[in-house]
Design a protein that fits this description.
The chain is of the alpha+beta class. It has 4 helices and 8 strands, in the order E-E-H-H-E-H-E-E-E-E-E-H.
């Protein structure tokens, strides 16, 4: 078996490594991780039933357990979600906003990735989806009530749309 040494791959004069990618994700910097990976860091999983709180607030979520993935910084992200290629929506991609963390406003804390898809209205339960982290918006927060949470969710969605949808950047 032949072996060949390969030069280090550099980005801005620094070596790309899995450790640097992990550091970027844990430092709330998905943009740097994307540059090193040449694609956004993504978490894939089966959509599970949640507590239905998002739906009651007007923001239905696709909930994923995190499994064996590296834990990026907990917080709110602008995301793109790719639906199951074998599902009825055939691998379509949707912009959205997601909460990654333990939902500190609710008891008991439960670690989840909860994604809201902006332009989708359908049933994703049981389907495997992939949630790609494009922009870190803010850290997780505990809110005093549901109205404060809903107001922040509205603001987060507006910012995610501004970042992800070119027509809204003007």
């Amino acid at each position: 078996i032949g072996a060949e040494a390969v030069e280090a791959v550099l980005l801005n004069g620094e070596r790309i490594s899995s450790g640097r990618i992990r550091e970027a994700l844990q430092a709330a910097d998905p943009g740097t991780a994307t540059k090193m990976l040449t694609r956004p860091f993504a978490i894939a999983g089966e959509v599970i039933h949640g507590d239905k709180r998002g739906r009651a607030l007007g923001w239905p979520t696709a909930n994923l357990e995190l499994g064996n993935y590296l834990r990026p910084t907990y917080g709110i992200y602008a995301v793109r979600v790719t639906l199951d290629a074998n599902g009825k929506d055939g691998g379509s991609e949707h912009s959205g906003v997601a909460s990654l963390g333990v939902r500190p406003t609710f008891d008991p804390p439960k670690e989840l990735l909860e994604a809201v898809l902006f332009d989708f209205d359908g049933d994703l339960y049981g389907q495997t989806i992939e949630v790609a982290l494009h922009h870190y918006l803010r850290p997780e927060m505990k809110f005093d009530g549901l109205e404060a949470l809903k107001a922040q969710m509205d603001a987060d969605a507006k910012e995610a749309k501004r970042l992800l949808l070119p027509s809204l950047r003007a």
